[in-house]
UniProtKB/TrEMBL annotation:
The keyword Disulfide bond does not apply. SUPFAM superfamilies: PLP-dependent transferases. Keywords: Aminotransferase, Pyridoxal phosphate, Transferase. This is Putrescine aminotransferase. Belongs to the class-III pyridoxal-phosphate-dependent aminotransferase family. GO terms for molecular function: pyridoxal phosphate binding; transaminase activity. Pfam families: Aminotran_3.
Length: 451
């Protein structure tokens, strides 16, 4: 089959996630056929540097035979069995042990799921159940953040704060509130306010929301260490210490959504380690298997786990694919390779600083109001060089830049007028140079189109 054949069948039968179905029908999909290292190759033979590691997940890059072999071997041995009703299998046990060894010391249990969304559904049920078992069943409110993404199941989208998602599909899960995000460049800072004062203000907004809802009614706060899909929002240094203090003051659980930040993205095994957080629960997915097979989970801290175990009886919750043996075997091999190759340390000590230095230079481009990065996540804030302000939304400049990027052989994603990258963690210096050069070329081309 050739590209037009795929496009015709795709148009006729395939409803894509997060896609305007009608517009896609008119434009036709790009068909990705292969992957090698940090590159994807489309059905026209174009070799494209995948600056997003798929959807922030292909941490070890494409084409790792060891992961293929791990899947094949496990499928021959036991392709599927479940973990329900007091049964398990070696891959799930070994993966649970490895995850708890890699996670901060107080996280000693894991509940497996098939995805990050299911992990956040599990979180919601666990935190409410925890407080019920503690004799405080009124503690049900969970506070998330505006513009946060925690998944597409009903619980995931309710915990998330994406207004366009909330506007579709009817009532959300009750007793979930949202507070402002620590996006200094983007919104909410007062005139002349520096990032640190702004970070403290965001934490104060959380405290105000807790008091509004009544501290006795608030179960948990959920947030990513660095907000990914919202626009690679790296909080000011003041933010997390102030949030931690607020949560401790009112005895509220912290859920650190590590679906993107986990497994080396910020140069530590978990983003929580980078920021010195001690989360009670950590949803994980994506980089856990480098995206080779779908698997997620929730790492559970002793405080919650002990209560669920000692006082909870049976937890009526689970997925057919919780701890799926083939997915678990691939995840285990993925973690083994990451450890053996020192991937996380390399992001922290070498690749992250190198990207930061190259990426910062893009801040001098006339279209860029801010260039920021941490580990291997980065963002560019686009501005109108004539005014120094944001472009009118209707111009969709971010999407224009994204399309020009793709045409020049780089996947860079746009969230409004914020351009974001999250490349595979095995990227080399030369590939970082290529990524930055292509991003600059796309900025130049965008500027030329706007002239
Ligand atoms: N949480 C975060 C922070 C995410 O970025 C995502 C997906 O992008 C999810 C949860 C949902 O994960 P999944 O798509 O595996 O359901």
């Amino acid at each position: 089959m050739q590209t037009p054949d795929y496009q015709r069948l795709d148009r006729a039968h395939h409803l894509h996630p997060f896609t305007d179905f009608k517009a896609l029908g008119e434009e036709g999909s790009r068909i990705i056929e292969r992957g090698e290292g940090v590159y994807i190759i489309d059905s026209e033979g174009n070799r494209i540097l995948d600056g997003m590691a798929g959807l922030w997940c292909v941490n070890l890059g494409y084409g790792r035979e060891e992961l293929v072999e791990a899947a094949a071997a496990q499928m021959r041995q036991l392709p599927y069995y479940n973990n329900f009703f007091k049964t398990t299998h070696p891959p799930a046990v070994k993966l649970a042990e490895t995850l708890c060894r890699l996670a901060p010391g107080h996280l000693n249990r894991v509940f497996f799921t098939g995805s990050g969304s299911e992990a956040n559904d599990t979180v919601l049920r666990m935190v409410r159940r925890y407080w019920a078992l503690k004799g405080q069943p009124e503690k049900q409110w969970v506070i998330g953040r505006e513009n946060a993404y925690h998944g597409s199941t009903v619980a995931g989208l309710s915990l998330g704060g994406m207004a366009p998602m909330h506007a579709q599909g009817g009532p959300l899960v009750p007793k979930i509130a949202h507070v402002r995000q620590p996006w200094w460049f983007g919104e909410g800072r007062s005139e002349g306010q520096d990032p640190e004062a702004f970070g403290r203000d965001c934490a104060a907004a959380l405290e105000a929301k807790i008091l509004e809802l009544g501290e006795e009614n608030v179960a948990a706060f959920i947030a990513e260490p660095v907000q990914g899909a919202g626009g690679a929002i790296i909080p000011p240094a003041s933010y997390w210490p102030a949030v931690k203090a607020v949560l401790a003051k009112y005895d509220i659980l912290l859920v650190a959504d590590e679906v993107i930040c986990g497994f080396g993205r910020l140069g530590e095994w978990f983003g929580s380690v980078h920021y010195g957080l001690e989360p009670d629960l950590m949803p994980i997915a994506k980089g856990l298997s480098s995206g080779y097979l779908p698997i997620g989970g929730v790492l559970v801290g002793d405080r919650v786990a002990d209560t669920l175990i000692e006082e909870g009886g049976e937890f009526f919750h689970g997925f057919t694919y919780s701890g799926h043996p083939t997915c678990a075997a691939v995840a285990l091999k993925n973690l083994e390779l990451m450890e053996a190759e020192g991937v996380v340390e390399r992001v922290r000590d070498d690749l992250g600083p190198y990207l930061a230095q190259r990426w910062q230079a893009l801040g001098a481009h006339p279209l860029v109001g801010e260039a920021r990065s941490l580990g291997l996540i980065g963002a560019l804030e686009l501005i109108d060089p004539a005014t120094g302000e944001r472009f009118d939304e209707s111009l969709a400049v971010g999407n224009l830049c994204r399309d020009l990027c793709f045409a020049s052989g780089l996947v860079m994603r746009s969230v409004g007028d914020t351009m974001i990258i999250s490349p595979p963690l095995v990227i080399t210096h030369a590939e970082i140079d290529e990524l930055v050069d292509k991003a600059r070329a796309a900025l130049d081309a965008t500027l030329a189109r706007l002239a």
